[in-house]
Write a structure and sequence with these properties.
Elements lengths: L4 H6 L12 H4 L13 H12 L5 E6 L6 H14 L2 E7 L11 H15 L9 H13 L11 E2 L10 E2 L6 H17 L1 H11 L3 H22 L4 E7 L15 H8 L1 H4 L5 E5 L10 H7 L5 E2 L14 H15 L5 H5 L2 H4 L3 H10 L4 H15 L7 H16 L4 H13 L6 H8 L3 E6 L2 E6 L12
Parallel strand pairs: 1-6, 1-7, 2-5, 5-6
Antiparallel strand pairs: 3-4, 8-9
Helix pairs in contact: 3-4, 5-7, 5-9, 6-7, 6-9, 7-8, 13-16, 17-18
């Protein structure tokens, strides 16, 4: 039976996060934890279910954008729900303007998503929180009513053009009220500034209202229903951009270090994704002092050893990740038996896995371009792949200056990076990847660059 390359193409969407709770998605899931230096998700789960089971907890989770954090967090959500937790998972980039984020924006986004998720939980109307939000809305000169009257919302980014009646608990109207405020502010930098000037000094009051009127009553009701507690997973907060605030502070350092106290004040379990650049910033020591737990890092899938030889286990898992998208209903050996039906040679698949450096999204992006080029031929050829690699290498080298080439040579030789700003850029731009093996962390250049003439000088 021939392989349907068009179906293979449709299953290879680099922007699609695998949700392990979905049986269709689960066919594509590969557990890379053996070649990522440990069970990071298991550590996050144990903090919630064992070590901080009866108290609020806060964890930071980081790694390269596109390395698979969202997939792993959805796995964490599914496992926590299986153990009886109510889990609120959301992508903060849907709520926040990532180029201009303040702590009040984050607090409101979390309050909105909790409120939405708890719409069916019988809790008293959060009067204090609604009064604070109404004062905020009046400041922004928006029509705002959280009573039983209809909330007719204009069409704005992130807010449906519908009319919704508040329910008897006020939870749905609260979520829509917050959404109305934040959508207006997100679309207008002036309004966003006024919102944060007003709520910034009131963040302690805002958090107290969220805890006392929303989270604590909800947890009490959830526990009466046999639930273990409430967990909030804030994904994509690692995408906060790194520009400097008006007073000279990096936006990432301001949110995760200066405002650490408030990120940790929710009276439930919270997991935030954190920008990887902070791991290599001079302020990282301050960050670790402000949280109970050090950030958990999801490194690259290990495709090679420090000495440059193949990591056989990592290569085997990456092969399965690719083949599962072409042959989701076969077992691992059955897929391997069909490699020659998809690729002109098994080594072509291995070349794809090696050159990805173990970065899941980079691999899928290269694969989907390869499929588009060779779809009509019926098999994926090495010649096409090499052309795509050369094209990507050319695009990457256009942005690298002489100083950065020097840093890349040092990384290749030493397998280390420092806190230098140049290294932060190399990591952010995915020119350098981090790997972990038996507790040891090491770095190497993106394999796409390995054959660049600038690295041969």
């Amino acid at each position: 039976m021939s392989i349907d390359l068009l179906a293979f193409f449709k299953a290879t969407n680099p922007g699609q996060t695998i949700n392990i709770a979905d049986p269709d998605d689960r066919k594509y899931y590969i557990d890379f934890s053996p070649v990522r230096g440990g069970t990071v998700i298991e550590e996050l789960k144990e903090n919630i279910t064992i070590f901080y089971a009866n108290q609020p907890s806060c964890d930071l989770f980081t790694g390269h954008i596109g390395c698979g954090k969202s997939t792993e967090l959805l796995r964490l959500k599914a496992e926590l729900e299986a153990e009886g937790f109510h889990v609120v998972y959301f992508e903060s980039s849907d709520d926040l303007e990532m180029a201009d984020v303040d702590i009040a924006d984050v607090l409101l986004a979390i309050a909105r998503r909790i409120s939405q998720s708890l719409a069916d939980v019988a809790i008293a109307e959060p009067q204090g929180l609604k009064r604070l939000l109404k004062r905020t809305a009046e400041l922004l000169q928006t029509e705002y009513d959280l009573s039983e009257v209809e909330l007719g919302l204009p069409k704005m980014p992130g807010i449906p053009d519908v009319k919704v009646k508040a329910n008897d608990k006020g939870a749905l109207s609260l979520a829509f009220g917050i959404g109305k405020i934040t959508a207006k502010a997100r679309a207008d930098s002036g309004l966003r500034e006024r919102l944060n000037q007003f709520l910034g000094p009131k963040k302690a009051e805002l958090l107290a209202a969220i805890n006392q009127e929303l989270i604590e009553p909800a947890i009490a009701q959830l526990q009466q229903q046999g639930k273990q507690g409430l967990v909030v997973i804030v994904d994509n907060l690692d995408r906060i951009e790194g520009q400097t605030k008006g007073w000279g502070r990096s936006q990432q350092e301001y949110i995760f270090i200066d405002q650490a106290e408030y990120l940790q004040k929710f009276n439930c379990h919270v997991v935030y994704t954190m920008p990887l650049a902070l791991k290599f910033a001079d302020e990282y020591a301050r960050l670790t002092q402000r949280y109970k737990e050090e950030p958990k890092v999801l490194p690259m899938v290990q495709v090679q050893q420090v000495d440059g030889s193949d990591c056989e286990e990592g290569m085997a898992l990456l092969r399965q990740m690719v083949l599962a998208r072409a042959l989701p209903d076969l077992d691992a050996q059955g897929r391997l038996n069909r490699v020659n039906d998809i690729f002109d040679h098994p080594e072509s698949l291995d070349r794809l896995c090696r050159v990805s450096g173990g970065h899941v999204r980079d691999l899928l992006q290269l694969l989907i371009q390869w499929l588009k080029k060779d779809l009509k031929q019926g098999r994926l050829t090495r010649e096409t792949l090499e052309g795509l690699i050369r094209s990507r290498r050319n695009e990457m080298t256009l942005t690298i200056d002489d100083h950065e080439w020097g840093l890349l040579r040092k990384v290749r030789e030493r397998k280390k990076v420092s806190g230098d700003d140049g290294y932060q850029k190399l990591i952010y731009s995915r020119l350098v990847f981090e790997y972990r093996d038996r507790g040891e962390s090491w770095f190497d250049i993106n394999p796409v660059l390995a054959e660049a003439k600038e690295l041969r000088e």
